[in-house]
């Protein structure tokens, strides 16, 4: 007999949680943390990871993912038990040339590496902003390639903002806003995203915080940044943004009847890895290196993108927190996903992804 748990949230949302996953699809929005290859299919985009040794650990060939294997979105799919999402541009190409009759029923990945929540971020690189990702999704809904009932039963994954904050410190640009005003402008765009995705049918929305961007090896590309410690000014902006994200998540069941949001505390999770690299996980060995990139070159491995001429690579990527100068290794992503999937309130709140996947929300 199935065990049924009834939870009241904000006195207005009645949710039944049935033990047995109820997620037919996942729709993914964001940047290189999630990108499954969209940039590869965008020939006008210069932000690429479609060359070796990207993808070498799991797929054994480049897929366009900016790591050596799977991302958080991939692991979430595997935990739920559905196939990995295709990049939107790959599915769109197959649909247009007739090799597939319709778009995938297990969801679609719209994420684009290098993109931000602000339209202007890295637009000279040809990336696809969150606003355009949302437009791509909306077009499929309006053209009835994606059923609104499927969207309501699905989980929306969102992670974006790292590139906006890194760009704020670009030595070749002059910020016109204060750090606080800049973060507010970012949060305004996220609020618009949540509003629109809800109107398109979304009911279960997972918003993930940024990690400690000021700790990535690529910080050495910026002038006057510390090498022996993280860049405090950058991480302060990240924490302010993350605080605002959680506020938006907390407002979802109040502002959007029939919807539910969770906030994934990725910043805290990664900082725990960094603070206790040998002891954070009793089931596996810890990290040998939480500062340097496994693949790259120069100080911290942060001066050169992995795979570019002159790069070096470590013997065991599983021992490294960072795969390249910006991105975590597959093992880091797996450990982050484990924390998001079954973690306690300090890792994800108000419930974890496993509980979110079990939820049956009332029809809207």
Spell out the CATH superfamily. Answer: SGNH hydrolase
- Helix content bin: 25-40%
Q: Mean pLDDT across all residues, rounded?
A: 92
Count the domains: 1
Q: How much strand? A: 5-15%
Q: Tell me the structural class.
A: alpha/beta
- Per DSSP E runs of 2 or more residues, the count of β-strands stands at 14
Secondary-structure element string: EEEHEHEHHEHHEHEHEEEEHEHE
Strand order of the largest sheet: 3-6-7-8-13
Q: Looking at the structure, what is the overall shape?
A: globular
**How many strands, which pairing sense, and closed or not: the largest β-sheet?**
5 strands, mixed
Named at the architecture level, the CATH assignment is 3-Layer(aba) Sandwich
CATH topology: Rossmann fold
Which CATH first-tier class would you pick? Alpha Beta
Termini separation: 28 Å
Low-confidence spans: pLDDT under 50, at least 5 residues?
1-19
Q: What's the number of helices?
A: 10
SSE layout:
Elements lengths: L3 E6 L3 E6 L7 E5 L41 H9 L5 E2 H9 L11 E2 L20 H13 L5 H6 L1 E5 L2 H7 L10 H21 L4 E5 L23 H24 L4 E5 L1 H10 L13 E5 L1 E2 L15 E2 L6 E3 L7 H13 L5 E2 L3 H6 E2 L4
Parallel strand pairs: 3-6, 4-5, 6-7, 7-8, 9-12
Antiparallel strand pairs: 1-2, 2-14, 8-13, 10-11
Question: How does this structure look, described?
Answer:
- This protein has 364 residues and is α/β, with parallel strands linked by helices.
- The chain is built from ten helices and 14 strands.
- Strands 3-6-7-8-13 form a five-stranded mixed sheet.
- Helix 1 crosses helix 9, helix 3 packs parallel to helix 6 and helix 6 runs parallel beside helix 7.
- The protein starts with a strand and ends with a strand.
């Amino acid at each position: 007999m199935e065990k049924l748990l009834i939870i009241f949230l904000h006195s207005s949302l009645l949710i039944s949680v049935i033990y047995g996953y109820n997620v037919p699809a996942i729709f993914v929005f964001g940047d290189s943390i999630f990108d499954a290859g969209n940039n590869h299919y965008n020939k006008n985009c210069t932000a690429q990871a479609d060359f070796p040794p990207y993808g070498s650990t799991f797929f054994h060939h480049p897929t366009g993912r900016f790591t050596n294997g799977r991302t958080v979105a991939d692991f979430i799919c595997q935990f739920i038990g559905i196939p990995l999402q295709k990049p939107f541009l790959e599915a769109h190409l197959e649909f247009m040339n007739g090799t597939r009759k319709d778009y995938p029923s297990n969801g679609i990945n719209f994420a684009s590496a290098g993109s931000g929540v602000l339209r202007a971020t890295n637009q000279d690189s040809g990336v696809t902003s969150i606003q355009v990702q949302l437009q791509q999704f909306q077009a499929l809904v309006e053209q009835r390639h994606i059923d609104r009932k499927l969207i309501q039963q699905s989980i929306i994954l969102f992670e974006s903002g790292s590139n906006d904050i890194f760009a704020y410190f670009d030595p070749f640009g002059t910020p016109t806003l204060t750090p606080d005003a800049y973060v507010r402008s970012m949060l305004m765009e996220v609020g618009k995203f949540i509003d629109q995705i809800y109107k398109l049918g979304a009911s279960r929305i997972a918003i993930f915080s940024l990690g400690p961007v000021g700790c990535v090896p690529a910080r050495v590309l910026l002038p006057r940044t510390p090498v022996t410690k993280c860049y405090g000014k950058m991480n302060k902006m990240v924490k302010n943004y993350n605080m605002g994200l959680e506020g938006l998540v907390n407002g979802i069941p109040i502002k959007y009847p029939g919807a539910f949001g969770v906030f994934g505390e990725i910043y805290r999770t990664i900082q725990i890895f960094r603070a206790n690299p040998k002891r954070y996980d009793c089931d596996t060995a810890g990290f040998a290196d939480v500062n340097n990139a496994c693949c790259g070159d120069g100080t911290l491995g942060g001066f050169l993108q992995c795979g570019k001429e002159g790069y070096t690579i470590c013997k065991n990527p599983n021992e490294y927190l960072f795969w390249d100068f910006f991105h975590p290794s597959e093992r880091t992503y797996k450990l982050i996903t484990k924390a998001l999937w079954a973690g306690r309130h300090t890792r994800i709140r108000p419930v974890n992804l496993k509980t979110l996947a079990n939820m049956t929300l009332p029809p809207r």
